[in-house]
Write a structure and sequence with these properties.
Helices cover 26% and strands 24% of the residues. By secondary structure, the protein is α+β, with helices and mostly antiparallel strands.
C-alpha cells in the first residue's frame, strides 16, 4: 500500500510541475550603471525625497509570472527636487543562466522611460533616504538569484527601509519560484492596505536627471 501511495503522490507532483509556467528569463539592463557611487553622488542626504516603487506586470492584473517572453520588472524611482534617479536590479550575466537558481553577479541599470502598470509612492525622510542610497550604492555586492534575490526582492528591500511592507508576491515556475513583478502587481491591486494608495493607470517612468554620471 505504501508503495502505491508514494507512486500516486509522485505522479500528482509531476502533474503540478507540468502546470507551472516556464521559469522567467530576465534580461541584462540596456543601460547598466557602471559606477553606483557616481550615479547617486548628487543626492542630498540631508533632505527627504519621494520614493516610487514601479511594477511592470507582464500580463497586468492576472498575477501571471510571464507572458510569452515578457517577464516584467520591478524598479525604483527617487525624486528629489529637479533630480531623478530611476533604476532597477538585474543579473550581470545572460538571462538564461539565471534559471539554474544559482547565484550570479548583479548590476543596477537605468530604467529611464521604462513602462509600468502599477506604482506606489511615498515621502521618505533624510534618514530613510540615506539607508536606501547606501543599499543601492552597495548593491554590486549583492548576488542575483532568480528565486530569492531578483529585481522584486531588491524593491522589497528598498520599500522596507521606507517602512512600506509590500504584499506577499511569491510565484512558482518549473524548477523553482520566488518574488515576481506579475504577482506583486496583482497583490497590490487586491490589497486593502494599498487601496486608493496605488496608481493602476500605468505609464512611463521618468528618465534619470541630474545624477552624477
Amino acid at each position: 500500500g505504501g508503495g502505491g501511495s508514494s507512486s500516486n503522490v509522485g505522479a500528482g507532483m509531476a502533474k503540478e510541475e507540468e502546470k507551472k509556467e516556464e521559469a522567467p528569463v530576465p534580461d541584462r539592463p540596456d543601460h547598466p550603471i557602471s559606477n553606483n557611487k557616481c550615479f547617486f553622488s548628487t543626492v542630498d542626504l540631508n533632505k527627504g525625497a519621494t520614493l516610487t516603487i514601479y511594477v511592470d506586470e507582464p500580463n497586468p492584473g492576472t498575477g501571471n509570472v510571464k507572458k510569452g517572453l515578457n517577464v516584467g520588472h520591478t524598479f525604483i524611482g527617487i525624486t528629489q527636487g529637479q533630480n531623478q534617479y530611476t533604476y532597477g536590479f538585474y543579473p550581470n550575466v545572460p538571462g538564461y543562466k539565471t534559471v539554474t537558481n544559482d547565484n550570479f553577479p548583479s548590476v543596477l541599470g537605468k530604467d529611464d522611460r521604462h513602462t509600468f502598470s502599477v506604482s506606489v509612492s511615498t515621502e521618505i525622510s533624510p534618514e530613510q533616504l540615506q539607508k536606501i542610497i547606501e543599499l543601492s550604492q552597495n548593491s554590486y555586492g549583492r548576488q542575483y538569484n532568480l528565486s530569492y534575490s531578483n529585481c522584486t526582492d531588491f524593491a522589497i528591500s528598498v520599500a522596507n527601509l521606507a517602512n512600506i511592507t509590500l504584499p506577499y508576491c511569491k510565484g512558482t515556475w518549473k524548477g523553482g519560484g520566488g518574488s515576481a513583478p506579475g504577482v506583486l502587481g496583482k497583490a497590490l491591486r487586491d490589497s486593502t492596505t494599498f487601496k486608493n494608495k496605488i496608481n493602476t493607470s500605468g505609464g512611463t517612468a521618468p528618465a534619470s536627471k541630474g545624477n552624477g554620471c
